[in-house]
Amino acid sequence: MPSTLSPDTLIRDVVETHKGAEAVFAAHGLPCAGCHVSTRESIRGGAAVHNLDLAALMADLERFVADGTVPPSRRKLAGPHAPPMERQRKPGIEHVVAVMSGKGGVGKSTVTALLAVALQRRGYRVGILDADITGPSQAKLFGVTARLYKGADGKPHPPVTRTGIPLMSMNLILDNENEAVIWRGPMVSSAIKQFYGDLEWGTLDYLLVDLPPGTSDAPLTVLQALPVDGTVLVSTPQGLATMIVSKAIKLVQKLDARVMGLVENMAYFVDPSGARLEPFGPSKGVQLVVESGAPLLAQLPIDPVLAALCDEGRIEEYRSPDYDALADNFVKVLPAPEAARTRGA
Ligand SMILES: Nc1ncnc2c1ncn2[C@@H]1O[C@H](COP(=O)(O)OP(=O)(O)OP(=O)(O)O)[C@@H](O)[C@H]1O
Ligand SMILES: [Mg+2]
Fold first, then answer.
1. 101 CA distance to ligand 2 centroid (A)?
2. Residue 180: phi, psi to the nearest 5?
3. Which residues line ligand 1 (CB under 6 A)?
4. β-pair partners for 298
5. Is pLDDT above 90 for 178?
6. What is the mean pLDDT of residues 101-128?
7. Residues 182 and 279 in one domain
């Protein structure tokens, strides 16, 4: 491994050789350490993809290697990297992250659930708010049927999953969970705000908010009324999904929220012979990285085992290194410093 840096050095090699160099990339608006693309991207390529000043980035990296200096943020404080707007932040909840896509059926709910499971296994305190009021799925995925309950403090608490993840979903307050919820936009918005504001979530490092498809009232409410620190956009390599996700990226940016990362779900399938197939076509990850300026946090395979566990309400039993990598990249992009300090996470 070369000890001197050149624009053609792989980003991954830089951060592996020089501990802490992620901070230099992050200062330039390139959360490279959390980016799946960085595993094969050079400094030059990363700068081109993210439209960065290569010479300034090289100068800062060389300075870091020489004396450990991390530069101040070189990012523009507008558009995709704007800081979260200060809304009624709820004490005890460190970060609120929305999972959306615009497109239906790409795996938002599955990714939300498995990201929560992987974060919890790493020692983070995580909760799930199912903001899909008319088509909730989180309670089903986890097999949770317990209701909202009143704690000793007299406040309403969300039920918890088998492994202890607090979860709130519309089915948990319906008398008949197969009942269709026909609600107009303002009622949907008010339910989401109440789920967030009125429930006693306890202390959380991350509250993950699972959004319904589309760019209707629910996503708008979450992005405008909740103190969202970042949005994870889920897509598949299919052209139509990519097109709709591009729209969602624009919506997030218009609302001055931050796309913190992308997840390409159903990216490939490994057949019994071990061959890697791409039923939805080649990856569109780099295209979405360019459009959003956000890192690709993971490319996830189609896995029939996962689909079966989802149907059986046993999603917490699923294990895969792909979701561990997703959680690791997620935490790099949006750290929970308190958790890292107290639990060595
Ligand atoms: N990687 C995967 N491998 C296998 N099956 C998957 C995968 N991701 C999602 N699925 C399955 O695809 C279906 C759709 O997933 P999911 O409900 O998570 O999508 P969604 O984007 O939340 O949908 P909606 O837009 O309706 O909310 C589910 O049956 C789920 O079990
Ligand atoms: Mg869903």
1. 10
2. -80, 135
3. 104-110, 132, 135, 137, 212-213, 265-266, 300, 302-303, 306-307, 310
4. 263
5. no
6. 95
7. yes
